[in-house]
Amino acid sequence: MSALSCVTENDIMALRTICTVEPNQQYNIEEVDMYGNTALLKSCYQGRLECARTLLEFGANIYAVNYFGQNALTLASYAGNLQLVLELLHRRPYQDFNLSSLIPAVCVAAMRQHKVLVEYFTTLDPIGTPNLRTVHGLGINELGHMLKPRNLPQNKLVNKYH
User: Fold this and answer.
1) Where does it sit, as one GO cellular component term (predicted)?
2) Are the C-beta atoms of 43 and 10 separated by less than 8 Å?
3) What SS3 class is residue 86?
4) 17-45 residue pLDDT tens
5) Rounded to an integer, what distance in angstroms lies between the CA atom of residue 29 and that of residue 86?
6) Distance from C-alpha of 97 to C-alpha of 55, rounded to nearest angstrom
7) DSSP β-bridge partners for residue 65
8) What is the pLDDT of residues 70-87, one digit of tens each?
9) What are the CA-CA distances from residue 97 to residues 13, 14, 65 (Å)?
10) What is 3-105's CATH topology?
């Protein structure tokens, strides 16, 4: 059993056991999966607040970034878990998280249409947040418009090459 598998199974008791044994180097809470996610990053992606709290309590690296340039706040924003976002921001500043991610958390929240998170992030930095951009140059307004449902015919896929 690993910290990553405990997060997958949402097994807090086993995770606590692993975190307690960790100093003996028998288990590694900073082990990464094939995407570069640590157990903390995976718990944020899956919106598992108690797993994340447990890992943070035992010293998980809040500065970890996966192979896609996503950090804990970005992934918690993807999951839309406000309580998890608040837990992370209690331990590291919003602006600091944004500096270490290819896509700012507010942009992820906008893409996933998590309006509560977009509003919350905007209150944290009302001047800077509207100016944040993804690595592709898209801001929260463009991302919100880009993902609105389109009026396309259902069940008709058009292949312009055939």
Assistant:
1) serine/threonine protein kinase complex
2) no
3) helix
4) 988 875 555 468 899 999 999 999 999 99
5) 22
6) 18
7) 71
8) 999 999 999 999 999 999
9) 29, 29, 10
10) 1.25.40
